[in-house]
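Exercise 7. Predict the joint structure of the components listed below.
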Amino acid sequence: MRVGLSIRQTRGEFVKRVEEISGQEILACNQCGKCSAGCPAAMAMDLLPSQVIRLVQLGLEEALTSETIWLCASCLTCLSRCPKGVDLPRIMEALRQLVLRKEGDRLELSALPADFLSEAPQLAIIAGSRKYLS
Amino acid sequence: MRYLYFPGCTLSTKAKGFAASGEASARALGIDLVELSRWNCCGATFPLATDNLLALVAPTRILLNAQKEGDHLVALCSICYHVLKRTNRLLKEEADKREKINLFIEEEYREEVQVLHLLGLLRDEIGFEALCEGGQKRLQGLRVAPYYGCLLLRPFQEIGLDDPEEPRILDDLLASLGCEVVEFSHKSECCGSYLAMNSSEVTRELSYAILRSALASGAQVVVTSCPLCQFNLDYRQGEMAAHYPGFAQIPVLYFTQLLGIALGIESDTFGLADHHVDPRPLLVSRGLQ
Ligand code: SF4
Ligand code: SF4
Ligand code: SF4
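Solution:
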């Protein structure tokens, strides 16, 4: 696979938006990988959390099409362990928001199994709506 | 002692037993939990996008209502606690955002309310050692796995209730009730949280890893303080059993249910029959029902 990189891209609109929404400085991450090592959902992700950050650092919008951003549970494990103080859950949120604000909902509540909906606690439905609906 | 109390939407509906057992236990210990006279849902997530102030309005309104009636607000649900505590801190530290939100809601929150979790209140105001003082320790020998999950502990800089890597608060509470508290590796790993809504298999795997770790340590029951953890760990155990032959199902209780039982309170209103994995056979076998 050929990937085009440019200095301009690394300071482009995409990186700026992610930094703005997350309040994080993307280059603070030194790619140590500690976040990925401890991420409980990493086994199901197509890209590791640290790889998602790397894509953003390089200004590559592929980060937005990764399944990883939808499998991050905002558990804050990575935040509590990052040696550089990067709030990765906020970066994941910024990426989700960029997709949701442009493309709309990721979840159809009415398509969920009836038994699940009748059993699920209110906070699951509310949190899920906050995370997956635009 | 009188404390203002925010039950939140789940404790008023699907987790009534959590509320009833928490309120009754507190009362037995001399804490009067007085429900806020007006409240709304907190939003169940602390907004991680820094450019969306609207999501902070709901928790700010709750804090504002609390400010009108007192200076403390107690939550039982880990998520409510997390959202209210972080919102409170943000309003205190970011004056520009606070002003904007105050303008929007046309009232003034002066960030005077202190947000507490019942666990912290019991530890810091009553003291765990006083819980069963002089009484018989009814839970003696019950092997419990204290499961903390994520939002009760993290981020430590903002929540500050207990160490996020090696938490003790639930361990210490349960030990003071006479339980045999097991050490297990997954006590603060994530159960899958809201992934339940969009990725049921991933949620099942994450929750399974926690239960497997608790079972391997010899636990007979898992204890939590969050209705979402409770649901994720409890609801899918049938599926787990079908998926992983040999998986032994294990009841998942709220800490308040065990606390109430330990204090000898009648458990009719504790919602013990509402759980998917029925805890009653275990409780009956130990003479607790
Ligand atoms: S732990 Fe922090 S510094 Fe290390 S890769 Fe992850 S985000 Fe970057
Ligand atoms: S917050 Fe997201 S990326 Fe970080 S450890 Fe948890 S699931 Fe993984
Ligand atoms: S977190 Fe919860 S249960 Fe708690 S009020 Fe908010 S949505 Fe309802």
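Discussion. Chain A is about 50% helix and 0% strand.
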